[in-house]
Amino acid sequence: MKILIIGASGTIGKAVTEKLKANHEVITANHNSGDHQVDLGSKASITALFEQVGPVDAVISTTGMARFGTLEQLSDADYQLGLDNKLMGQVNLVRIGKAYLSEGGSVTLTSGFLAQNPMPGSISLSTVNGALEGFVRAAALELGESLRVNTVSPVFVTETAQAMGMGTEGTLPAEQTANAYQASIEGNMTGQILDVRDYV
C-alpha cells in the first residue's frame, strides 16, 4: 500500500513509520520536515499536500496540537488551537483526503485516552479527543465501504513520559503503540476507536 503518514517525525509517528515501511510504500509529512510539509490547521495546506502526493491507499495522522491547562487558565485562543488543529485538522484530512484515497482505502486519526480518562489540566485535550471519536463513528456510517475511518487512542507514551520526568506506570512504548495503527491500516474495521492497550 501507498501510505501517507502525517506527524511522522513525532515519537509515535517514527514508530509507525518504522513498523509500516517494511511492507508498504511510506510517504512522510510534518510541519517542518519529511517528504512533504503541512500545516494541519490550514485547509489550504492540507489540500496542497494531497495535490503533491497524489492518490494514496491510506492516510495516518499521529499529530495534532492542543494545549494543557485548567478551566481557569485556558484562554479562547488556547481552546481554539485544539479545535482548529487537532480536531478540525484531522477532520479535514478525511473531508479533503477522501477524493485522493483509493476505493476501500482508510484514514486513521489519533485521539487519546484523555477522552475517557480526563485529568486536571486536560480539559481542552479531553474535549477535542472526545469530539474526534464521535466524528469517526458518525463519518464511518456515511462513508460505508468506500472509505474506512478509525481513530487510535494512545495512552501516554513511555518515551514521552521519561522525557518529561514523569513516572512510566500505565504508559506504553511507542513501538507497541504503533501496533494499533498497523491493525487499523491492515485490518477491515471502520468507525472504531482502537485502544492501544488492546494491541500489545
UniProtKB/TrEMBL annotation:
InterPro entries, A to Z: NAD(P)-bd_dom_sf, SDR_DHRS6-like, SDR_fam
The keyword Phosphoprotein is annotated on this UniProt entry: no
Classification via SUPFAM superfamilies: NAD(P)-binding Rossmann-fold domains
This protein's record includes keyword Nucleotide-binding: no
Annotated keywords: Oxidoreductase
Pfam families linked: adh_short_C2
PANTHER family according to UniProt: DIHYDROANTICAPSIN 7-DEHYDROGENASE
Family designation: Belongs to the short-chain dehydrogenases/reductases (SDR) family.
Name the record gives this protein: Short chain dehydrogenase
Organism: Kistimonas scapharcae
